[in-house]
């Protein structure tokens, strides 16, 4: 037997012909044992009756890979549709997410600072003007593949001093007065515009938000006031849908977007599955089966790729279980010889948005994110168990730090009876004499330490992000080290 076939899990079993041995080797029948089951062969070719099975496997593999590829695009498309259908947002409106309830729909939202977010379809507006007021903000503009187009605020060109930005659709030329703006060229027609207010004073934050303006460049002489909306308690979800709904959302958004050169092979896979730009969504029964199976397997692989990262650089400290969750080398997701497909899939399954500030390596600027999916023994974090996290004194954050708990299934803030998902240096936590802090997670609060506790939900797994805002040198040189999450009796 060919040793390469044996190494790949293949074997050949001869089948007796009616005369014992075929006189014509090309017509000899045998069976090839493959990872998808036995394949009847006629000589070196698959038997005719095996061809449908092979095509079904091809369709399943295409659907699985297309699912993983499309995660960032479907996430934004879902989020945009939920804002529109459930929260009443129109093109260019801003949604203000402040409370725990407001943020329950955002994948891995931070629970500490307000979000101000809006989706804009440049098909409708043309070039877009953004007027950011001066003040402590962090945000930016991203395209619908969740590539950062430009940062705004402290990590943007305005450096917190405010300014005017001009977002250009794909192929648009800068106007004559382009020098009056910070220019941002989008590769997609739909964009997300968002920022966070970092000032801890709610009144100052509100005043800053109310100064923000966003309008079509064509209306610059007399722009309409930007509408500010709130979810007002309405339930919504930005988590990518499952099953056929995933593909329906993908089909809908690709109708409105140009095809990037890097994605043409994936578009070919989708076309063979009944999803094509300019054509209705009408997969055959066989295609539908492949799509449903591909979405199921794709999400399983996404979970492994996210919650058990195998990227060499993911584990931040070699003797700790904390991951550097954002492993995209730069916001464009592009390295010299390839684009980061699997790093991108991992981040955009568990999170949304990406800016330069989120991957900043400059002490005192931006944010950093550490993720814990297991306890110190490597076991998944169980909502029915009690855990403790020891945070050593002097966490390396110029602004503040926070520890936030998420539901592993939805990747959104944990939806618990306590109605709380985070602990942070902006809260009144009980400290140890040396300045360290012990945080607790479990179904019940430790006696006398309720202020240091987040309630978890039995029957559900959870994971957590430890965020450092404006991380200092001790984080980058790793002289400060965070303990693992430890199960307690």
TrEMBL record:
Domain DUF1254: 104-216
Endpoints of the signal sequence: 1-23
Residues of the DUF1214 domain: 367-472
Superkingdom per UniProt: Bacteria
Keyword hit for Signal: yes
Pfam families (alphabetical): DUF1214 (PF06742), DUF1254 (PF06863)
SUPFAM superfamilies per UniProt: VPA0735-like
Matches recorded under PROSITE patterns: PROKAR_LIPOPROTEIN
Keywords of this entry: Signal
Protein name stated in the entry: Lipoprotein
Organism: Pseudomonas lundensis
